[in-house]
Write a structure and sequence with these properties.
alpha/beta; D-Maltodextrin-Binding Protein, domain 2; 2 domains; 7-stranded mixed beta sheet; 4-stranded mixed beta sheet; 19 helices; globular
Amino acid sequence: MRGKSARYLSAALVIVMTGGLMLSGCSGKSESSGKTEIEILQYKPEAATYFDQVEEQFNATHDDIHLTIDSPNDASTILRTRFIREDYPDIIGIGGDINYSYYVDAEILADVSDYEGMENIKDSYIDIAEGLEFVPTDGTFIVPYVANAAGILYNRDMFEEHGWEIPTNWGELMSLCEEIQAEGILPFYFGFRDTWTCLAPWNGIAVDLAPADLCKQVNRGEANFTEGYKEAAEKYLELISYGPEDPIAYGYNDACTAFARGESAMYPIGSYAVPQILSVNPEMNIDSFVMPASDNTEDNTLNSGIDLGFCVTAECENKEAAYEVLDFLLEDENIQAYIDDQNAVPCKEGDFELAPMLDGMSEYIETGNMTDYQDHYYPSEMAVDAQIQTFVINKDVDAFLEKFDSDWLRYNRDIIRTVEEYEEEHGSIE
């Protein structure tokens, strides 16, 4: 394990050591083929078909490099195990969340500031990536590839039939819910039996009401969640009051199916849910809008983060070859193919055709008015999704936030220590 911060990776990540798990190490020149071997291990198994095609097309058009792309179901576990064993892929494909932060801190990733393809990546996503770092770190460590967008999906045909207007602030959203309810229609559906779905409306509300760097402020001892999240927690309870009587009774698939069948007018979830919804009702006319959680329309921002980015590992022996692979991945036609396959948002500048269900968010995408998911900063050990589920049941704002604060200090000790050490050496982090 490289660097003085390796202990934080080991402490913060739950490492599952499985006997006999040893995949191919950092690639080099193949003695049998004479080609430079580049391995990508990426964490999105749902995009495996796309990456199989990329691998085939790349190898068919390159004589000097052989590319292997692995898309296992348990990529995170495999990565962590391989890192512990100092057995590194050349490139990893990961999301922009706290795991990326751990890898930066542990000095596992190479600086890709010299990669020319970075010039075409939207500044907003580069900023989001930099914001994930526990402390300022010289260099750039991820090439953002695609993003997702979360807010509120709505039934466009139902809205047009009833003449409902898209809300632009919290008051308008609550009035709309009353209007929909008066028509005998359920405003929202939720699938909170699957705890991770509890985070979708939470993130959408929090990005408008809490500082984007609240988690970092707490790590620096400058804020707490009891105050920073109070309004978000209160409005979360308001929102779920316009859903099923017992939102915990239904899972993600149930919610997608119910929305697809017209059992609710809206569904607070990310664009990633659209394929599941359309599998139930292929003809459904879906659009979306950002969660208008603030009373001030000008505070609206798109909840978006890096869904997939590529990082060259520090131990990669063939950085130039890795860059050539990245060039291929970033070709417009390949990005467009990924967009079409996964309803994604490109992190690269360019004239890409987005899925029609993102029409209502296009203004925010085009202008770069977007803010990362709050949960991208949460350690998995905190199980914030489960905490929110309990909050939905108990509806006790104070208890929820008090536990949030206490658990944060418990599970972020190493990170807080890292911040303290940095500030002792460099001064306060701005």
